[in-house]
Amino acid sequence: MHWRRGRVTAVVREWPGAREVTARLDEPLPRVGDAAGDPGARDGALEVRATALVDLVGAPEVGDEVLLSVSALARGLGTGGSAGVVAVPSRLPSDPPPAPGHLVKARYTPLQAMVLGVDEQESPAHEVLADADDLGGLPVVVADLHSALPAVLAGWRAARADAGLAPGRCVYVMTDGGALPAALSRAAAGLRGAGWLDAVVTTGQAFGGDAEAVTLHTGLLAARHVLGADLVVVAQGPGNLGTGTRWGFSGVACGEAVNAVATLGGRPVASLRVSGADERERHRGVSHHSLTAYGRVALASAEVVVPLLPGPLGARVREQAAALGARHRLVEVDVAGLEPALADSPVRLSTMGRGLAADAAPFLAAAAAGRWAASGG
């Protein structure tokens, strides 16, 4: 862990549960690992951006001294590439009022959070969930990257509108493969504010949702039986962990999510991770992440949505996805008309640093999954 003290120089922006500030460090930022030899690295930087989870550490103001974790910056990471405010020593937040709940998340870390689990005995929903065991065919779109969330919703909403239907209630079930605090998702906050998303459920070690669940299974059941979802999107929080190996990536959980949805009697709809611009061969067309998660980890059958993209990329995607046909039902979905729906997203579309104009394929693939989920299969 790399630590620095800093002094807040400006409040940059804030959204529910988080505040981003700039801080001047007491000593220069280190550069370690791969970043140490990067000629573009800001060696010796003295001013950085930092994010505070205000429910945990309070809301830093200009002039406050802050304790910062700067390891992500020191290593030059894109994922999580900002400093974290660990404490505002001169102005600690007040103790929270007495409240039920003994479910601890981010367990045994210095910033572990104690929350009321939707499924624990003190919860008003406990009685509902105690014997809940069935999703009743609820459509659940499973996606690898957090960036798929707004695109899935865009496709769902467009298809529902075409059918003369209201969007219904849409719930995001966030797994703990990426960021643990739900507050770090500006996308979820923006989608909530625009009325595109009705609730967030945080599962496993993730925390900060409208409902907190111990496992993905109880998170899914809470979405159905407590929050009344018409659609659920399952994806990790912001960020993504990968090692360039077949099995060492956080998206492997997509296969486990398919198994959970099927076990609970839901309708698993698998969204493929697709790219037409990624320079890495293993992610061009259908990512090896999707082929591994759905082809090897998912033991239950899902509806795998194959977007009918134009040109050589579309042909490549169809050819690669064919390998999943032995276990899953492949459904080809037209993407015509989805770009305008994506352009209407109330939040910025970005994946791996690329927007809709630079690489439309990942967003069209996710939107196609939303469109198919709305079709009823």
What's the total count of β strands?
A: 17
Radius of gyration over all CA atoms, rounded:
21 Å
Q: Write down the overall mean pLDDT.
A: 91
In spatial order, strands of the major sheet run 11-10-9-12-8-13-16-17
Low-confidence stretches: 35-42
Strand content: 15-25%
Structural category is: alpha/beta
Report the end-to-end length measured between terminal Cα atoms: 48 Å
Largest sheet: 8 strands, parallel
Could you write a compact summary of the structure shown?
The protein has 377 residues and is α/β, with parallel strands linked by helices. The protein is built from eleven helices and 17 strands. The radius of gyration is 21 Å and the shape is globular.
What does this structure look like?
The chain is an alpha/beta fold. It has helices spanning 54-57, 71-74, 126-130, 148-162, 186-194, 216-225, 253-263, 288-297, 311-321, 338-343, 361-375; strands spanning 3-15, 18-25, 47-53, 65-69, 83-87, 103-105, 113-115, 139-142, 170-175, 199-203, 211-213, 231-236, 267-271, 274-275, 285-286, 303-308, 329-334. The strands form four sheets. Strands 11-10-9-12-8-13-16-17 form an eight-stranded parallel sheet, with helices on both faces. Strands 1-2-3-5-4 form a five-stranded mixed beta barrel. Strand 1 and strand 2 form a beta hairpin. It starts with a strand and ends with a helix. Residues 35-42 have low confidence and may be disordered.
List the helices and strands and how they pair.
Elements: E1 3-15, E2 18-25, E3 47-53, H1 54-57, E4 65-69, H2 71-74, E5 83-87, E6 103-105, E7 113-115, H3 126-130, E8 139-142, H4 148-162, E9 170-175, H5 186-194, E10 199-203, E11 211-213, H6 216-225, E12 231-236, H7 253-263, E13 267-271, E14 274-275, E15 285-286, H8 288-297, E16 303-308, H9 311-321, E17 329-334, H10 338-343, H11 361-375
Parallel strand pairs: 3-5, 8-12, 8-13, 9-10, 9-12, 10-11, 13-16, 16-17
Antiparallel strand pairs: 1-2, 1-4, 2-3, 4-5, 6-7, 14-15
Helix pairs in contact: 4-11, 7-8
